[in-house]
Each structure stands twice: as C-alpha cells, then as structure tokens.
Design goal:
- Helix content is 80%, strand content 0%.
- The longest helix has 22 residues.
- It is built from two helices and no strands.
- By secondary structure, the protein is mainly alpha-helical.
- The chain starts with a helix and ends in a 7-residue tail after the last helix.
- It is elongated, with a radius of gyration of 13 Å.
- The chain has one domain.
Length: 54
C-alpha cells in the first residue's frame, strides 16, 4: 500500500512539473525540473520498497 501511494504521489508531482515545463519552456527551468524528477524517482526506487518496523 505504501508503494502504491508513493507511486501516485510521484505521478502527480511529475504531471504537475511537466505542465509547468510545457507552459514555461525556459531551458534553466527544464534543467531544474529534470534534476528534481530524477532525484524524486531515485528516492522512490530506493526507499519505498523497504519493510519498516513501526
């Protein structure tokens, strides 16, 4: 369930910044968005699959 919610959050965030990149096509902004989405994707892949002892 946690992984599903993380995937939904990642998809929502990516959709939002994609709209921003399309509407404001500044090369600097697109570079920051690509870096940010890459970091968020890395965090999703490395942290959402772990079992936690709550």
């Amino acid at each position: 369930m946690d992984r599903l919610l993380a995937l939904a959050a990642f998809a929502t965030f990516t959709g939002f910044v994609a709209i921003l990149a399309i509407e404001v096509p500044s090369p600097d902004l697109i570079a920051v968005i690509v870096l940010t989405v890459a970091l968020v994707g890395y965090d999703f892949l490395t942290s959402s699959g772990r079992d936690r002892n709550d």
